[in-house]
Amino acid sequence: MLERLRQPWPDRRAELLLGALACAVLLIIVLMVVFVAREAWPTFRHNGLSWLGPGGNVDSQIGTMVNGGRDFHLRAWPLVWGTVLTTGLAVAFGLAFALLASIFIVEFAPDRLRAIIVPVVRLLAAVPSVIFGLIGILVLVPFVGNHIVTAGQKKSVEFVVQLSGASLLVATVILTVMIVPIMIAIIVDALYAVPRTWKEGAVALGVNRWRAMWTVSVRAARPAIIAAAVLATARALGEAIMLSMVSGSVGFAPNPFDGPLFLLEPLRPLAATIVEDAESLQAPAVRSSVYAFALLLLFSSLFLSLAGFLAKQPMKKYGARI
Amino acid sequence: QATPVITMSGSTSVAPLATLLAKAYVKSHPGKVKFKLAQGGSDVGVADVAAGRVTIGNSSRDPKSSDPSGIFFNKIARDAICLVTNPGNPVANLSQETIQSIFAGDVRDWSQVPGAGITGTIDLVGRTAASGTQDAFQKIFMGSKTVTSSIAAKASNGLVQQAVQSDKNAIGYVSLDFIGGVTPAGYNGVACNLRNAKSGEYGGVRNFWMVTRGRATGVVQSFIAWVQNNAKAQAIVGKHWVPLK
Amino acid sequence: MAVATRPPKRHESIATWRWGDRIAFALCWAAGIGLCLIAALIVGYMAIRGIQYLKPSLLWSHPSGEVDQSNSGGFLDPILGTVLLTIIGIGIATPIAVATAVWVVEYGRPSWLARAVESGIEVVAGTPDIVLAIFGLALFQQGLFGWMSFTAEGGAVFGRSFLTAGAMMSLIALPMVYGNTREGLQAIPRHVREASYGLGKTRIATIRRVLLPAVKPNISTGAALGMGRIAGDTAIVVVLLGATLRLESEGSVPGANVLKGTGSTLTSYVYNNSPAGEGNAAEKAYAAAFVLLLVVVALNFAVDLLARRGAQTGLEGTRLGAGR
Amino acid sequence: MITDDRTTDVSTTTPDAAGPPPPIRKIVVDAPPTVAPAAHTPVGHAATGGAPAHVRGEPGPERMALGGLSVFYGDNEAVKSVSLSIRLGEVLALIGPSGCGKTTLLRTLNRLTELTPGARRDGTILLEGTDIDALEVTTLRRRVSMVFQQPNPFPMSIFDNVAYALREQARKRPGRAVVEPLVEDALRRAGLWDEVKDKLDAPALRLSGGQQQRLCIARAIATRPEVLLMDEPCSALDPRSTLVIEQLIGELRQDLAIVIVTHNMQQARRVGDKVAFMYLGDLVECGPAEQIFDAPQAQRTRDYVRGAFG
Amino acid sequence: MITDDRTTDVSTTTPDAAGPPPPIRKIVVDAPPTVAPAAHTPVGHAATGGAPAHVRGEPGPERMALGGLSVFYGDNEAVKSVSLSIRLGEVLALIGPSGCGKTTLLRTLNRLTELTPGARRDGTILLEGTDIDALEVTTLRRRVSMVFQQPNPFPMSIFDNVAYALREQARKRPGRAVVEPLVEDALRRAGLWDEVKDKLDAPALRLSGGQQQRLCIARAIATRPEVLLMDEPCSALDPRSTLVIEQLIGELRQDLAIVIVTHNMQQARRVGDKVAFMYLGDLVECGPAEQIFDAPQAQRTRDYVRGAFG
Ligand SMILES: Nc1ncnc2c1ncn2[C@@H]1O[C@H](COP(=O)(O)OP(=O)(O)OP(=O)(O)O)[C@@H](O)[C@H]1O
Ligand SMILES: Nc1ncnc2c1ncn2[C@@H]1O[C@H](COP(=O)(O)OP(=O)(O)OP(=O)(O)O)[C@@H](O)[C@H]1O
Ligand SMILES: [Mg+2]
Ligand SMILES: [Mg+2]
């Protein structure tokens, strides 16, 4: 075998071999969709599309499944909504923050500071989610519970949920901190990759550095910014462990119309739900539901990358490099 | 031939006990058998043993209608479930009715709870439906009533303990090992501690099970028999849990 | 931007800027400083807690399922587990990723397939680890994969083992290795390849003797990043590694038995000892988390070194976040 | 509002700004000599009284003055104490072998070198008598504008490219109505209007290389700077575009001081009123084009203009 | 290296070049005229019987013959039915404005254009009478070797760079002992040996631009090709390295057929025995250097060599 490798390869065979390996990746994805979809099928067949809709208390529905109910009835809306909320808020804040920070790193940071920030960013990007979860549950959650949530607020919703500190607020904050470095990493690289001639062209016209950055570099880097947002969204969607630790894990859909209070309400996104119910997989109804959650996540990340791709198209025309 | 291996998986609450027992058994029966222990939750244990992935599944919950057929639950010990409140709000005693009305969501303010030190909303902390503790609590304490859906359902004893610890208005229920940092409330006039549980006065006890595929045979059988009957084994159980006898 | 710093000070003042620009400027600074503060807080807090609770003995004593934490042992096995799992994962990921990158950049015919593979990797990168985990469970409990964990007499497959977990972990690392390798290859100017072709070398010869050596730094950078991701992942471990306290070997073949066996990693150890897991030993959790953090930092450091080595070889090793 | 911090004396800016007819025709009309003689005169013979590339007016007032200017990249001294003066209405052509510091010198004139980490500068540069270090950098760069070697239009529409500087330099963003005439004027002066007036909203990067470069010139002169720096503006272009741009330069010199770097000596001869020869950072010789090419003083100049090296 | 920047007249070159490393001395010995005459001859005067750039031997046998060669990129015809013959012991210099198809033509000669998607070729190219399409491509490229505009050594040690070229595909890689003498020989012929013989294992990318380019030449001639193609080999180099490489070319021509693309007409004159002028894909004129520069037939050639454009 080794001997064969040492021999010069005919180009054709090499190409086929490498190509085959590359296609293996595709195969895995197909397998994944198929397997997950197959497992998820029963619950969808039973609930139809109203599976996504609101109705009843999702926790008790799952509860009955866990305790062996053969009943597939499930209305996953609170979980979906929880996912949308955490992801949406985190990405919205995160993107703005990351963009500013990236511009700072590339343009304004003094060399010494830049030399510090860059590794810091990569470190942050690498901190395992379980550590964020640990800090969240042992530090932030008690803090919010004891110092931010007021008795009045607790009373106002006592018939619906408990405000224990584990809340949308904490979840969003930590999630933001988790995804910002990922975005910064991508955006910074893109900003650096903007052809120097463009920025110099702008600066040479007597445009100040911020404007040059904003009107030319950032503009040229939009595809990367979108890519960053997509990746970050995917991460936020999929974050399970940390959220299961700090989100309060209640199948409740916080209502923005409750005013600021809704930030303090607990919830449980899809991914966290999967983690927590993974141990009851042997109950057929639970199994099917859990895989249904997974399928939902899978498809949303599929659509994400598709959406990102489409969003980049119009920019090609003006010479953005994608 | 090679020494047989007993593989266990299942309830994380049973795991510590199972480990201790296994150690002692190996010591007293050298070379007779080896043990491997995985955790993952009661349901995992039941499922694994049913599928034959392990020889023993540990469960901290009683058999369910939904459990796969052909498995056999061997009771090995019992464990007390304590109602716990925040140290800032010690409650000496709770009657079953009080508990039921609190957790059913009928009573929502400490002022309505006899013996409560404080007033204000009651923060209910419970367990997710998957957990054996939840199952036991429902059976033992709630009887016909069901736990209100507004309860903050935690995934583990630790979370409940932590939630109650950090929230003055909270009340929850945990297995006896988890009363550190919180104050256990008496139940029907009996304090929740190991002694009362052993003596049988304390009512709120659940069972620990070792589940086998069909009736246990061979080394497994002898191990479980040892656990159930051997004095030393029960002594080990007695350290933190409630022995059968 | 290094404004040449020597008298006379070059005159540049934001006083002439529009108000909007000045505010944006301020915001940028705020964001940058804020970033550093957050990082400092997190690392600092973990360090304090870690040093407070980390006793050397914990590092080389086996964990045991005692109730009172005082004698529930240390986390030697989780450390070993982390190392083992990381090696397996990266070991599987690297060859596939590199091969894929080479194929896409150097051959990429038919182009639709190349594009498909590209976006395929993108999808993998975007797939939640928890989804991978339960997909792995569904996949590896098929009888076909019995050899990776073990098949019980009932014919059912356990499905949880270092091999199965590692296989799924490789999917997490794959995009990183792939991305870096591809960047490296694309950074090599076309005329370098042509020079080789011009000398009458085949594509594959060029790849093996010129391109791969040139992108070695990128590959190792990607690998290091990927290892960081693997070491830091929890969901897959919790679901797919069985989270046994100790390394439980399976079968009699030395070496293989460990791979086929179950165990735990630092992440799952932290998770299980945090209130979220059944155990509630904050001290142990903090200590282990600190060690985990150190591991990650070490890997990052490795990334830096590798990248610097890459820069020296002339064709610079580009990397996420590294800038230029 | 747009022209707020432009301090060019009105006299120079107004006349041409009046009604410039379609440049192309204009070129044919009043600048036939631009190419003709050079094209038909063998370089060698030019020595024997070849007509100068174009009619030279009196050099106007001095715009910029370099005194003992040195530029260092780290320890490498790329420009070695150069002294020069740049006058209105005069085209100064910088020639010299690759790497001799032409670009560096040029970039220093509007403090672009400050963008290069590790670049240091000695000596004084005066713009209309005031040290450029004393000027706020954006103000300076608005008055001393630059065209680069590679055409670098921004990834926007043609219109936005020209409007860019106008909008950005204004304290508050002027509407399209305000900008439109100025854009048109700039495009006309850059001789690009007729080619693009129907596709102003097309991406600038769709233009041909020559058009892109002229767009960049339009962009640079839109805000009516006092000095225009050009770094090998034609080296990336085909012969025709080169011709057009050389004619363009011939026109712009009337109300601008122009410094152009070029590799092509014939080009330097055609467009340059004054020519400066640099070698390894030294300013070897500087004088009227004829002198440099037909009667160079220094040996190195002689060798170079005879194409012995470079 | 040559210690003197006035690279031009032998009087100054020979003596102090004689001091330092052999390769120069070698060059100076058997090719002194390489630069001298051209250097002394102002381009213009060359008309009046300037000596040819160097002593020309009889053109050797024909190596390659192009017949009606056309190259298309998509629909754009970059080279339009060119017919040429390339002879042993003769340096053919291709000149022409940017984009006229020089590089394309060159790359077609060893079928490198096949790597460009959408590039098509018409007409015949014969190498020693056999159609190059009939030859196995790797064999062809070993016989018709190429040096590129950018010095592009591989990211390996100096030794490996040359050895890489030598190691045959077919057999398993020969040991260092086998290739060592060949590498040394190649480096000697490229006049690089004495500069690098002590640091053969240093990364090639640490070398200076000029050294890198000569390394690439060494790499290209290591396999003893019959034809050597060079695409603007000096345009990225400083004057001194340029000189050395021109001298090198002067030597190599004895046992090679060389085709060199250049922008610099003086260079073409100095190194080229034959010069071919291309314009927009057409081969306008091809003939001895003197003819092209001093008595060009075609108008376009005349304009071009007089620097009217490009
Ligand atoms: N950013 C830089 N950092 C370090 N050295 C530089 C930098 N830019 C230029 N140099 C050096 O400064 C010297 C002059 O460079 P410059 O680009 O000004 O020459 P040039 O005359 O413009 O060359 P060309 O005609 O090829 O454009 C060169 O030796 C070059 O190596
Ligand atoms: N890869 C390509 N794809 C499409 N067109 C190309 C490609 N390469 C070159 N061309 C076109 O072919 C024509 C000839 O290009 P070529 O590079 O041969 O010119 P050249 O004489 O080498 O120019 P220069 O002197 O600048 O190197 C040009 O019009 C160019 O636009
Ligand atoms: Mg330059
Ligand atoms: Mg070319």
Structure description:
- Chain A has 322 residues and is mainly alpha-helical.
- Chain A contains 14 helices and no strands.
- Chain B is elongated and about 65 Å long.
- Chain B contains eight helices and ten strands.
- Chain B has helices at residues 15-28, 42-51, 96-104, 132-142, 157-165, 194-199, 218-229, 231-240; strands spanning 5-10, 34-37, 56-59, 71-85, 93-94, 123-127, 152-154, 170-175, 183-187, 205-213.
- Chain B is 33% helix and 24% strand.
- Chain C has helices at 19-53, 56-60, 76-107, 111-126, 129-140, 162-187, 190-198, 203-232, 235-240, 256-260, 266-273, 282-312.
- In chain C, helix 6 (162-187) packs across helix 8 (203-232).
- The longest helix of chain C is centred in the first third of the chain and has 35 residues, at 19-53.
- In chain C, 59% of the residues are buried.
- Chain D is an alpha/beta fold.
- In chain D, helix 7 runs parallel beside helix 10 (209-221), helix 8 (176-189) packs across helix 10 and helix 10 runs parallel beside helix 11 (239-252).
- At the A-C interface, helix 2, helix 4, helix 5, helix 6 and helix 8 of A face helix 1, helix 3, helix 4, helix 5 and helix 8 of C.
- One adenosine-5'-triphosphate binds at residues 73, 76, 78, 96, 98-104, 116 of chain D.
Descriptive tags:
heteropentamer, B: 245 residues, alpha/beta, ten-stranded mixed beta sheet, 10 strands, elongated, D: 310 residues, six-stranded mixed beta sheet, four-stranded antiparallel beta sheet, 14 helices, globular, disordered N terminus, binds adenosine-5'-triphosphate, binds magnesium ion
Topology:
The complex is a heteropentamer, with one copy of chain A (322 residues), one copy of chain B (245 residues), one copy of chain C (324 residues) and two copies of chain D (310 residues).
Chain A: H1 2-6, H2 11-47, H3 58-66, H4 77-108, H5 111-126, H6 129-148, H7 151-156, H8 168-193, H9 196-204, H10 209-220, H11 222-238, H12 241-246, H13 270-277, H14 284-316
Chain B: E1 5-10, H1 15-28, E2 34-37, H2 42-51, E3 56-59, E4 71-85, E5 93-94, H3 96-104, E6 123-127, H4 132-142, E7 152-154, H5 157-165, E8 170-175, E9 183-187, H6 194-199, E10 205-213, H7 218-229, H8 231-240
Parallel strand pairs in B: 1-2, 1-3, 5-9, 6-7, 6-8
Antiparallel strand pairs in B: 3-10, 4-8, 4-9, 4-10
Helix pairs in contact in B: 1-8, 7-8
Chain C: H1 19-53, H2 56-60, H3 76-107, H4 111-126, H5 129-140, H6 162-187, H7 190-198, H8 203-232, H9 235-240, H10 256-260, H11 266-273, H12 282-312
Helix pairs in contact in C: 1-12, 3-6, 3-8, 3-11, 4-6, 5-6, 6-8, 8-12, 11-12
Bound molecules: adenosine-5'-triphosphate (2 copies) and magnesium ion (2 copies).
One adenosine-5'-triphosphate (ATP) binds at residues 73, 76, 78, 96, 98-104, 116 of chain D.
